[in-house]
């Protein structure tokens, strides 16, 4: 039995696009339209995703029609995640964290690599090379431990930031992913705590 969690986020988005197009226009999109909507270089890339959705049992395709995609009754959708948004986290210099629950979002579990415990809104651009932009909501899974190279939410002297974690012996650095920013070298007299690890993001608007 297949479920939405067996699909990649990209294929989940393509399936949603197909459903929306059928609901709005009464016909499925062509491969060319799928390719254009998702920025694929060719229809063959779109075809690969359509074949995967067909094999997963979500759609069927009439090869003799240009718009031959038809929705099948999909398996029951998993429960949506109800995730709280807790303040903000800096992707530049650390800023004070506001731990109040500002609101909640209902999200598809397929959005995240692991189920997040909460979301934080990013402020700043120091993680842009990892695709984390100012204003994004990052999913965070609570964890006091991290391995080298992981993106973490760290509390340093009471302030919170999102960076890549690097430990070398007793030395710890919090690394930005923007050459305009310098690594944060954690001093021996500073109070560092790993709040959680990054497990995906939500971009609104």
TrEMBL record:
GO terms for biological process: DNA repair; DNA replication; negative regulation of DNA-templated transcription; proteolysis; SOS response. Its EC number is 3.4.21.88. One of its GO terms (molecular function) is DNA binding. Keywords: Autocatalytic cleavage, DNA damage, DNA repair, DNA replication, DNA-binding, Hydrolase, Repressor, SOS response, Transcription, Transcription regulation. It comes from the Bacteria. Residues 84-198 form the Peptidase S24/S26A/S26B/S26C domain. PANTHER family: LEXA REPRESSOR, LEXA REPRESSOR-RELATED. Belongs to the peptidase S24 family. This is LexA repressor. The lineage of its organism: Bacteria, Pseudomonadati, Pseudomonadota, Gammaproteobacteria, Pseudomonadales. The gene is lexA.
């Amino acid at each position: 039995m297949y479920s939405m969690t067996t699909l990649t986020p990209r294929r989940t988005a393509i399936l949603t696009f197909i459903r929306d197009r059928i609901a709005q226009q009464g016909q499925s999109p062509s491969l060319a339209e799928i390719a254009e909507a998702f920025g694929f270089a060719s229809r063959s890339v779109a075809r690969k995703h359509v074949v995967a959705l067909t094999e997963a049992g979500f759609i069927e395709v009439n090869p003799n029609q240009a718009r031959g995609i038809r929705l099948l009754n999909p398996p029951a959708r998993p429960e949506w995640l109800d995730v709280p948004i807790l303040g903000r986290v800096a992707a530049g210099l650390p800023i004070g964290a506001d731990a109040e629950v500002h609101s909640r979002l209902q999200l598809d579990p397929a959005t995240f690599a692991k189920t997040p415990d909460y979301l934080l809104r990013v402020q700043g651009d120091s993680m842009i090379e990892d695709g984390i932009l100012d204003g994004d909501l990052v999913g965070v899974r609570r964890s006091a431990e991290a391995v080298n190279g992981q993106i973490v939410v760290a509390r340093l002297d009471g302030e919170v930031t999102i960076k890549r974690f690097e430990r070398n012996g007793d030395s710890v650095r919090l690394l930005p992913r923007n050459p305009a920013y310098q690594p944060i070298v954690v001093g021996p007299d500073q109070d560092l705590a790993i709040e959680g690890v990054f497990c995906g993001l939500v971009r609104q608007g």
